[in-house]
Amino acid sequence: MFTRQAISTLRLVRLSRGLATHANSGLAVPASLHLKTGQTFKGTSFGAPRSVFGETVFSTSITSYTESMTDPSYRGQILVFTTPLIGNYGVPHNVAPFDSQDVGVVLESQGIQCAAVVVGDVAEKFSHYTAVESIASWCKRHNVPGITGVDTRAITTLLRDQGTTLGRVAVGTDALLPPPAAEEYWDPSLENLVDQISTKQVYELNPTGSVKIAMLDFGAKANILRSLVRRDAAVTVFPWNYDFNKVRDQFDGLFLSNGPGDPKQCMEAALNLRRTIAEWNKPIFGICMGNQIIGMAAGLDSYRMTFGNRGHNQPVLALASSGSIKAGRVYVTSQNHQYALKLQEPFPEGWEPFFINCNDSSVEGIKSTDASGKQVWGVQFHPESAGGPLDTIEMFTDFVSHCKAQKVANYQPADVKPQVGLETEAPRVAATA
């Protein structure tokens, strides 16, 4: 027998469900996910009514599907969410101010970056105080197809066992056709995805900041920029292959962002950085792709992982202490990468491993040694998360503090010179759909 309290709670639940916004799914359109390894999964379509090829990957993130889908590191990928229900809190209005607290967008870029999304159950109702549309209408507006009603557990098991696999999402009449031939599948890793997504023009954020930091944009998440400007940094963003050495004396630090694809496609940036590290003694920090570029500049090699690490629950062990990071402690991190740096013995002179993954023992970061006299750090995970744990967020504070300290140490009023060689545009977030 229900108590009065139980009946009251049940009424409240029914009321809240009734207030949720319907996603207007319309008529069911057939859709299929074909994998190059021969498997096919049949479901129904949502989002854009078109078929696409891509690299099929999975993410174990439970929340933040909007941040994942707008992360430029997912460029060219068919994103499978292991969490069964996706879309229940809708999609927010993706506009923010350009100031010392924000960078123009609420999410991680201006549009959806993944090629397609695969979910077990797309929400037909969404409810959140910031939501303005459903995930289905959002995908349709950005011309991104989705498939729902498939067994994402089985897909994830396949990808875990056989590794990341090329695939195709076929929609409508295409879903009724036979799977593509093996030679028809498109491999995004063969293209320079960074060049597709990186800014083409130099631009500046928070120009009145107290410390000047340059960023090489390999496909930067907005929250990386946000994490820097909120620490009072003026950030100038450059294309990925810009030779920073031409303007390096105008800055107090260099940041290398995350990005999609194979880091070996960006060897030009690694060679430029090698000269920077050799000739410049100011702080350098890299995240994800930025970490791999630092590693290649140091003489390490990169390799393609079996299925990569994607999710908000990856534990890493700190092997060295630096700032807020303490050796011997395990940090839970957010990650999204298919490639990693090879762990070799001996490590290049002047360098040491910084973090190692507790699950697969892959290298999760490197740093310059104290004896080298350099201030260089790289991490494979995302300290800024968005979404995910914030165990390592203070690494941004550490980096900006090092830049400020270096600025004070180098301050010589008699040598102040006007800036030259920089033509910047109005602030904007470079990554677009």
TrEMBL record:
Q: Output the Gene Ontology cellular-component terms.
A: cytoplasm
In terms of Pfam families, this protein maps to: CPSase_sm_chain (PF00988), GATase (PF00117)
Q: Which InterPro entries match?
A: Anth_synth/Amidotransfase (IPR050472), CarbamoylP_synth_ssu (IPR006274), CarbamoylP_synth_ssu_N (IPR002474), CarbP_synth_ssu_N_sf (IPR036480), Class_I_gatase-like (IPR029062), CPSase_GATase1 (IPR035686), GATASE (IPR017926)
Q: Which EC main class describes this enzyme?
A: ligase
The molecular function GO annotations come to: ATP binding; carbamoyl-phosphate synthase (glutamine-hydrolyzing) activity
Q: Which reaction does it catalyse?
A: hydrogencarbonate + L-glutamine + 2 ATP + H2O = carbamoyl phosphate + L-glutamate + 2 ADP + phosphate + 2 H(+); L-glutamine + H2O = L-glutamate + NH4(+)
Q: Which residues form the Carbamoyl-phosphate synthase small subunit N-terminal domain?
A: 29-170
Per UniProt, the keywords (alphabetical) are: Amino-acid biosynthesis, Arginine biosynthesis, ATP-binding, Glutamine amidotransferase, Ligase, Nucleotide-binding
Q: Please name the HAMAP family in this protein's record.
A: CPSase_S_chain (MF_01209)
- Partners and quaternary state? Heterodimer composed of 2 chains; the small (or glutamine) chain promotes the hydrolysis of glutamine to ammonia, which is used by the large (or ammonia) chain to synthesize carbamoyl phosphate.
Which family would the database say this protein is a member of? Belongs to the CarA family.
Task: Report the protein name in the record.
Answer: Carbamoyl phosphate synthase arginine-specific small chain
